[in-house]
Amino acid sequence: MSIIDDAILQLQIHALALSTPSQKIKSAPAHPVNDANVLPLAIAHIIEGSGQADEATTARLLLTVGVDFHLSRVTLKHAYSEIDKIVPEFLQRLAGDPTLGGKVDTIVFPVTFTVTPADWGSVITQAVFFRVPLKFREDPIT
Q1: What is the pTM of this model?
Q2: Rounded to the nearest 5°, which phi and psi values hold at 69?
Q3: How many domains does the structure of the chain reveal?
Q4: Fewest C-beta atoms under 10 Å: which of 2, 71, 79, 87?
């Protein structure tokens, strides 16, 4: 695996370690679903990035990784009770592991998030979209 894959996997591990008031969070399936019974689910993925050379000696990679949680909207009260648990717990996990187990130089805080309805396949979910900026130090430029 690449260092990027390793960092994304570590974020997914943190996401799956969370629990909601109703059930355990699962990894998102390979394809969007048409059945709300698979919720809640989480998926980590690259949103954007940049690269630069520091003084022409070291290459640096900066990525923003999205960690998305999709929750059932059967009732908004229930969805928000789950969100109220996920947000602080996920942020605490990131603060307690700022290098993602040594996979990155650091998480570049602040980590931001948005809460909004979303489509996951044909299922409307209540979603929390985290944006996690990561700083990688690459090998020296030779």
Answers
A1: 0.89
A2: -115, 125
A3: 1
A4: 2
